[in-house]
Design brief:
- The protein is 17% helix and 35% strand.
- By secondary structure, the protein is α+β, with helices and mostly antiparallel strands.
- Strands 1, 2, 3, 4, 5, 6, 7, 8, 9, 10 and 11 form an 11-stranded mixed beta sheet that branches.
- Strand 8 (131-142) and strand 9 (146-153) form a beta hairpin.
- It is globular, with a radius of gyration of 18 Å.
- The two termini are 24 Å apart.
């Protein structure tokens, strides 16, 4: 776990999640990152009792990148409020098919979660039970068969980036659920939570962190 820590102080812990790691326990019963981190901190810091660690936000299991955890209840309550107010800026990197798309575009759609298949349904216009979903992407690198996109996420909806990019015809590499033709080796998708910036909830310092790319994948390595 030590190698996955990108930032840590008395109040915060920011992790570079690996593809396939479950952030929080679900019906699969698989060991989650939250449980692993609690055990790691308990052993590392020789804590006698239970370890407090709160999850501030999630990213999907098949993605990689930055996840924030709070080590104190004060930090958790303040960070949760910051998430609701959109005061945490998130940038993602994604590999998508090299199609004829604008080099930069702001996408505004309306997303509704389908509980039966755990998938987001995209609508172009306001629709009952659908939430406004906004992101801006820019092409920052052109590979032989793929574009590398940098994505500014303005809202945080279920499967938002995956669903919106698929809707405009560029499903994320490996994302079979949203229309990619082939899976990635290892079953993940080529979506990486690359950068976070926010004001520290306690010290009020500006925090900016970046997650190294999963360079065991040669395509991600080519993006450096």
């Amino acid at each position: 776990m030590k190698r996955q820590i990108v930032y840590e102080d008395n109040h915060l812990l920011i992790i570079n999640k690996k593809v396939g790691q479950l952030v929080q326990g679900d019906k699969t019963g698989d060991l989650s990152l939250l449980d692993l981190l609690r055990s790691f901190i308990k052993d590392r810091d020789k804590k006698p009792g239970n370890v407090f660690l709160g999850l501030v936000h999630r990213i999907d299991r098949p993605t990689s990148g930055l996840v924030i955890f709070a080590k104190t209840s004060k930090a958790l309550s303040r960070l949760t409020r910051m998430v609701k107010r959109r005061e945490i800026q998130k940038k993602y990197w994604a590999l998508v098919p090299k199609e004829g798309i604008p080099r930069s575009q702001r996408l505004v759609h309306y997303l509704r979660k389908n509980e039966k298949n755990n998938k987001a349904v995209v609508y172009r216009h306001p629709t009952p039970h659908a939430k406004e979903s906004i992101l801006t992407y820019s092409v920052i690198k052109s590979l032989e068969r793929y574009f590398l996109l940098e994505i500014d996420l303005e809202t945080g909806r279920h499967h938002q980036i995956r669903a919106q990019l698929s809707y405009i015809g560029i499903p994320i590499k490996g994302d079979l659920k949203y229309g990619a033709p082939r899976s990635n080796l290892g079953g993940g998708i080529s979506l990486h939570a690359r950068r976070l910036s926010f004001v520290h909830p306690v010290s009020q310092e500006k925090i900016i962190v970046e997650a190294p790319l999963p360079t065991q994948d040669p395509l991600w390595k080519a993006c450096l």
